[in-house]
Amino acid sequence: xxxxxxxxxxxxxxxxxxxxxxxxxxxxxxxxxxxxxxxxxxxxxxxxxxxxxxxxxxxxxxxxxxxxxxxxxxxxxxxxxxxxxxxxxxxxxxxxxxxxxxxxxxxxxxxxxxxxxxxxxxxxxxxxxxxxxxxxxxxxxxxxxxxxxxxxxxxxxxxxxxxxxxxxxxxxxxxxxxxxxxxxxxxxxxxxxxxxxxxxxxxxxxxxxxxxxxxxxxxxxxxxxxxxxxxxxxxxxxxxxxxxxxxxxxxxxxxxxxxxxxxxxxxxxxxxxxxxxxxxxxxxxxxxxxxxxxxxxxxxxxxxxxxxxxxxxxxxxxxxxxxxxxxxxxxxxxxxxxxxxxxxxxxxxxxxxxxxxxxxxxxxxxxxxxxxxxxxxxxxxxxxxxxxxxxxxxxxxxxxxxxxxxxxxxxxxxxxxxxxxxxxxxxxxxxxxxxxxxxx
Length: 440
Prior knowledge:
- By secondary structure, this protein is α+β, with helices and mostly antiparallel strands.
- 37% of the residues lie in helices and 22% in strands.
- The chain has helices at 18-26, 48-63, 110-120, 140-153, 158-161, 165-171, 182-188, 222-237, 257-270, 302-305, 316-324, 334-345, 370-375, 380-392, 397-404, 408-420; strands spanning 7-10, 30-34, 68-74, 77-84, 98-101, 104-107, 129-130, 175-176, 179-181, 201-208, 211-218, 240-245, 248-253, 279-283, 287-292, 351-355, 358-364, 424-426, 436-438.
- Strands 11-10-14-15-17-16 form a 6-stranded mixed β-sheet, with helices on one face. Strands 1-2-4-3 form a 4-stranded mixed β-sheet.
- The radius of gyration is 29 Å and the shape is flat.
């Protein structure tokens, strides 16, 4: 069994491995095997009986926890297995807090340590109370805006809406004892950046990754940021086409508005505000990308987001207020809603990325129209072939020859050119039965 999130191999015991035990206890638990090399080969262990007594005693005296230590015998030698349970409270090694992440051990410091300690206490970052702030310091116009949205959404009792701002804050659970929570500041304060670094949104229009044409910053509380950002995106950054149905003027944008709004709300409600980095929206000629600092819940993958899943907001107090106002759902359907909106609109499904730097949502507009294809230098056959594939989902070399009355060599040359330009891709089948399909 290879090293992983829950297993660590060591050839011999050193007292510094108490840090690894600390890391396992602070994470999901795990095992340390003493007497195996980095490849998992048994190399044996010296003085096993002494270690069976020393290790649990040192763990108890230095870390304040208990572990199971077992001796295993094999033909290649003996090895010791240390079983560490996950602990519900923070465990420290001489004042240091270590944490097992992946197959590595990290010492937690700064913001990472703060989040860890809050999590162990059952708190989230947005639920931390802040002294010296009262409801009177919050923006009355934003409270009025919230009330109107909440009444329309029918997600809050009307008698609460007619009550004072103090009572509204209490009913939204944005207060702990006499202190306003961080979530209330982000949602209702006129200048959240006074308390939270990077609590704003950056928008940029890029001609290429290196060529920024223009940009904007959106400040204010979360409700103001959402409204201002949507207005900026659909008046300055995202193009629209105008047509008429009888006397009615019809305006169609390049992206479905509901999907874009959902991506924006996803970013503001799941952002890790403790990192001090603004949400970033990058607009290109053919795509728009939303990025926010943050992480998926433990053991979640991108694939899980593509199916029905529970709602586990990174900032539950912020998410609750956005739900009450009718901005978001509470059923974990945001990612699926974006997919459905894009499919209905006729553009590719959004692409979701996640790495240690944060979470990305990418929308791509439908560029496969004749006007755009002409700018790529395609001939009329190739443009018609793209339309054919959009309708039939695939095309073979033989189809191409028949439809356009050309030789096999000409068909191959045209199709290879479409693959090289990233418009088509070849099927996994080779030889007889092979075909070409759109490269989304």
